[in-house]
Amino acid sequence: MDRIDTTAFASLDRTPDRTPDRTPGGASLSAVPVTTAAMARAHVRAVVLERWNSPSRRATEPALIDLLLVVSELTANAIRHGDGLAGFEVTPTHEGVRLTVHDNSDVIPAAVYGSGHLPPVHHGNGYGWPLIIRLSREIAVDRRPGGGKTIRVVVPLQTSP
Predict the structure, then answer these.
(1) Does the global pTM surpass 0.85?
(2) What are phi and psi of 10, to 5 degrees?
């Protein structure tokens, strides 16, 4: 089944003459296409720095590294195994960041509800899902009505004083 790639996410736009909706930190939101894991990581880092961090809490660098690893795995899986990235969303939550990745495949990965144990030997399945399971909470996979699936996870962020 052919589908149109509708990949988009909210990016921080600091163009002074634009006046779309503003985030609490003053940055505006606009939709831009995301086609790579690198683009998704850059956006997530910006959201954490601009919208999640505050004077009373800051994500630690190790927590940010874990978050970016989950972003990489989810987006790379959608591109490689999910017939393409069909959408990417990032939402700050009280405890961390909710990631939502849409792809074009109806196939739900067998390892998605696994134990999170790393395989002793690599036999064709990677280490991605065990890492996602270890670093994320509230993992959900739902088939989309028009085809494909949506994967949602919450990645908690440790804070520094």
Answers:
(1) no
(2) -80, 130
